[in-house]
Structure to design on (643 residues):
């Protein structure tokens, strides 16, 4: 075996087209899925899903409605247990783990249909995201020991700091359920970031946003990646956003990957065009 | 004065509400306690004070399960029953060992809370792992089972210690306890606990309410409480941020059960005769009515609703036949008032105007 430096990975053989940007080439990938699949009864909702994501990559997952994009997110966060295949997060196997354990391992997500703690304040929503960063027991909380005050103060400051990403510090005491739609989406992203993830999954972050809000969101997605140095994977139907921010794109149709590559490669891929627009008629 | 004012306005709204709740309870106690001591209150009114305290603790603890954890419990009286009878057994069997009634009452309340907490573990561990309304079904059954179990229980105490017989066949009597000379029966099957020394005091009730408030309100404002409320609002999202669902559901439910047990011990030691049939389904529903009318998740609401609805039937005693009719009408009116949009809008308009005036 040659003595040259090999990347410290325990990579399973992933088929070609893994989409790691060059800056992550010497690091082990954050996420490796191999032959991932799930059946709902006789239906193969996702089948033979292979994907590798680099440590600071922004990856896009696109496809027509019902292609299985959200199912992939649910598999990655173990809302569904996969029927086949393995998911390695930072080189560690996630088999048999629960959703909560995966959050502690470093996956955070937002939801297609917003899931906030709508009766609680904006600040409390973020503090719940900080749940596993704080470490004090129920007894400490009830007796309000010094540790409680210290950690609550830190959590308060951290929550405001995170809210400032989207300029939302002023809304800290508002009830989450009373916020406008676009702001709720941003709050979900802040809450996900509060868990201290290494991989952030965004499920249609721009849904219901107008073009200027979407443009702002694009900037913020890149800003979040740069400041937190994390990988982001997003599902989105807004092609401007996907082509604008994603360094690698993966196209899903009927539960299977039909193309992987950069924005230009995807746009030129005949299989992708067929999936979205249908087959060209023979002249 | 100005300093206090600026300090107060700097507080969060939730902290202000908590302070107002503590202050309200303390004020009410400071008014009622001297009246009771000087004997100005009538016998029937002062006799209601300790049960009222117990029901307030019950309502606050049930609010923890229903309003804050978001799970329906229909057998809260079962936990009260466990606390009451374990408390009575503790207090009566320590009669000669600890002469001070106050110390015995404290011990009885602690034992009652622990026993009810254990019952909470037994019910909660299997049930809270499921999603859905199973807790309501199981607690409903639990309340009925506990009542029947205690009806079958014969407990006596003598110089050799406690004697317990489980009289499932119904054929055994107190004779079977074989109590030595000087021994006495504490729980006599269907008759319940008789000849209990009444050691509960109104002051103890007040202290228990304050402790309950401190536990529940501090829990709600802590990391654990936020996790519990997150489960109520959206379980899937709570899991996705790394909250252990079963752990925090159990934490909320067991705390609630233990507080109900403490309330039961206070309640049980206020009567010389107490039968297990007192803690039936109707009692569970009564407490649930207090909680729902006071507002789910609203702690001071539970306290006020309990005080009003517990005193109301007594105050209406003069109307004899119409008393339950009026009680029902009041319930319906309160429900209409709290759920109607027009009333709510009126409230919010009044409230906003006040705020606008203050800011101007």
């Amino acid at each position: 075996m040659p003595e040259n430096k090999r990347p410290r990975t325990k990579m399973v053989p992933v088929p070609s087209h893994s989409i790691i940007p060059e800056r992550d080439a010497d690091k082990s990938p954050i996420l490796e899925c191999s032959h991932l699949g799930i059946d709902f009864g006789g239906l193969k909702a996702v089948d033979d899903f292979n994907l590798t994501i680099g440590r600071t990559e922004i990856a896009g997952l696109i496809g027509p409605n019902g292609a299985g994009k959200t199912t992939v997110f649910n598999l990655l966060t173990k809302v569904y247990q996969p029927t086949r295949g393995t998911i390695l997060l930072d080189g560690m196997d996630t088999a048999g783990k629960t959703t909560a354990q995966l959050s502690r391992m470093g996956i955070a997500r937002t939801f297609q249909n917003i899931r906030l703690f709508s009766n609680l304040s904006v600040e409390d929503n973020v503090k719940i995201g900080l749940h596993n960063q704080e470490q004090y027991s129920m007894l400490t909380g009830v007796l309000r020991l010094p540790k409680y005050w210290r950690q609550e103060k830190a959590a308060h400051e951290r929550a405001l700091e995170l809210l400032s990403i989207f300029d939302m510090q002023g809304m800290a005491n508002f009830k989450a359920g009373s916020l406008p739609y676009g702001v709720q989406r941003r709050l979900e992203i802040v809450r996900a970031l509060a868990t201290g993830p290494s991989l952030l999954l965004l499920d249609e972050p721009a849904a219901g946003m107008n073009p200027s809000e979407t443009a702002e969101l694009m900037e913020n997605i890149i800003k979040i990646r740069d400041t937190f140095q994390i990988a982001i994977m997003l599902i989105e139907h807004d092609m401007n956003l996907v082509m604008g921010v994603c360094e690698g794109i993966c196209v899903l149709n009927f539960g299977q990957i039909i193309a992987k590559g950069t924005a230009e490669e995807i746009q030129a891929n005949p299989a992708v065009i067929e999936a979205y627009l249908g087959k060209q008629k023979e002249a | 004065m100005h300093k206090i004012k600026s300090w107060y306005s700097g507080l969060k709204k939730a902290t202000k509400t908590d302070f107002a709740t503590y202050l309200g309870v303390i004020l009410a106690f400071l008014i009622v306690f001297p009246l009771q001591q000087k004997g100005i209150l009538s016998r029937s009114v002062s006799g209601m004070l300790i049960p009222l305290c117990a029901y307030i603790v019950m309502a606050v603890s049930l609010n923890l399960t229903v309003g804050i954890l978001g799970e329906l419990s229909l057998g809260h009286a079962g936990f009260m029953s466990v606390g009451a009878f374990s408390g009575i057994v503790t207090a009566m069997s320590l009669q000669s060992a600890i002469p001070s009634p106050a110390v015995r009452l404290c011990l009885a309340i602690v034992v009652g809370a622990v026993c009810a907490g254990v019952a909470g573990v037994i019910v909660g561990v299997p049930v809270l792992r499921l999603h859905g309304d199973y807790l309501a079904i199981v607690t409903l059954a639990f309340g009925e089972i506990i009542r029947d179990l205690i009806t079958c229980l014969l407990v006596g105490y003598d110089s050799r210690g406690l004697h317990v017989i489980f009289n499932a066949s119904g054929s055994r009597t107190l004779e079977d306890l074989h109590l030595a000379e000087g021994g006495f029966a504490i729980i006599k099957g269907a008759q319940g606990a008789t000849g209990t020394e009444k050691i509960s005091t109104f002051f103890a009730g007040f202290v228990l309410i304050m402790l309950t408030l401190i536990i529940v309100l501090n829990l709600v404002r802590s990391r654990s409480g936020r996790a519990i409320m997150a489960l109520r609002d959206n379980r899937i999202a709570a899991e996705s941020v790394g909250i252990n669902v079963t752990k925090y559901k159990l934490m909320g439910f067991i705390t609630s059960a233990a507080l109900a047990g403490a309330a039961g011990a206070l309640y049980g030691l206020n009567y010389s005769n107490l039968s297990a049939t007192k803690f039936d389904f109707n009692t569970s529903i009564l407490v649930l009515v207090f909680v729902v009318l006071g507002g789910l998740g609203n702690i001071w609401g539970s306290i006020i609703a309990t005080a009003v609805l517990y005193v109301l039937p007594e105050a209406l005693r003069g109307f004899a036949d119409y008393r339950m009719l009026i009680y029902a009408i009041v319930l319906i009116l309160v429900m209409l008032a709290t759920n109607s949009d027009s009333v709510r809008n009126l409230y919010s308009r009044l409230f906003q105007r006040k705020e606008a005036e203050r800011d101007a």
